[in-house]
From TrEMBL:
This is Cbb3-type cytochrome c oxidase subunit. PANTHER family: CBB3-TYPE CYTOCHROME C OXIDASE SUBUNIT FIXP (PTHR33751:SF1). Component of the cbb3-type cytochrome c oxidase. Pathway: Energy metabolism; oxidative phosphorylation. Keywords: Cell inner membrane, Cell membrane, Electron transport, Heme, Hydrogen ion transport, Ion transport, Iron, Membrane, Metal-binding, Oxidoreductase, Repeat, Respiratory chain, Transmembrane, Transmembrane helix, Transport. Its cofactor is heme c.
Length: 301
């Protein structure tokens, strides 16, 4: 990376850019200076297609050439005012970061007081406020719907936020913590711990039995001891999970990665890794408060 931030690259980019723009003007001039004398017939370039379709070496029409000259002039003016020549910031001192920060400052001045008004209220009260819910929904659609869906019903690997089943807990403060700090749920591969493919099949059938799904009773009986030895440390001896570490409840028939025998065997064999990114560096505390209130209200309405 050091090669790309050395002092060489700024002048190099500036020279290449200016040479390209000026070169266009020079090439255009070279193609426009020769005019045909009265009665003189234009020569061809020697390129012929379809037996008689020839390419003539005529100069460009003046109106067309001037359009090209105008683009060259515009390009030089643009490069003088805006950054485009290596490390030269342009006479206008414009930057995309500066524009973004300016727009964010204007938005904060306009909407900040509205967000802060709700920040002073209890999260449950905010969740019950129709106007606050509309604001929270817009935040959700902007920042959360890419994973959880616009209806918040999730998808494979992304939790449904409307069903009142929570990996880490569904109380207001826990939801706010989840949004603020993010979550990193990891289940390591357990294929060796359960005794290979046959052991994974036995444990999978026992897990199916916990939620009352169709299963092989013989395999489930053999998998119960393995579950108690290997899986109970996280999911509990009764399979009801542990919200402190995000271990799912295996008895409620709610499945994040699928509840078929094949899907459960895949989970046991390969493990799972789910990441919910922290939003504290992207959203203000007031916006997180509104967003948490909206998510809390999804399972209450």
């Amino acid at each position: 990376m050091a090669d790309f931030i050395s002092g060489f690259w700024g002048p190099y980019i500036a020279v290449i850019t200016l040479a390209s723009v000026i070169g266009c003007a020079v090439f255009l001039k070279a193609m426009s200076i020769r005019r045909l004398a009265p009665g003189e017939k234009a020569a061809t370039t020697g390129h012929v297609w379809d037996e008689d379709l020839a390419e003539y070496n005529n100069p460009l029409p003046r109106w067309w050439a001037w359009l090209f000259y105008l683009t060259v002039i515009f390009a030089l003016g643009y490069l003088a005012y805006y950054p485009g020549l290596g490390v030269f910031n342009g006479m206008g001192n414009w930057s995309s970061r500066g524009q973004y920060e300016e727009e964010m400052a204007r938005a904060e001045a306009t909407y900040g007081p509205i967000f802060n008004k709700y920040l002073q209220e209890d999260l449950k009260a905010v969740a019950a406020d129709p106007e606050a819910r509309q604001m929270g929904q817009r935040l959700f659609l902007t920042y959360c719907s890419q994973c959880h869906g616009s209806d918040a019903r999730g998808a494979r690997g992304f939790p449904d936020l409307t069903d009142n089943d929570w990996l880490y807990g569904g109380d207001p403060q826990t939801i706010k913590t989840t949004i603020t700090e993010g979550r990193n749920g990891v289940m390591p591969p357990m294929i060796a711990a359960v005794g290979g493919e046959q052991g994974a099949k036995e444990v999978a059938n026992y897990v199916l039995s916990l939620s009352g799904r169709p299963h092989d009773a013989t395999l489930a009986a053999a998998g119960k001891e393995k579950f108690t030895t290997v899986c109970a440390a996280c999911h509990g001896p009764d399979g009801k999970g542990n919200q402190a570490i995000g271990a799912p409840n295996l008895t409620d028939n709610v499945w994040l990665y699928g509840g078929s025998e094949a899907a459960i065997i895949e989970t046991i064999t390969k493990g799972r890794s789910g990441l919910m990114p922290a939003q504290k560096d992207k959203l203000s505390e007031a916006k997180i408060h509104l967003l948490a209130a909206y998510v809390y209200g999804l399972s209450k309405h």
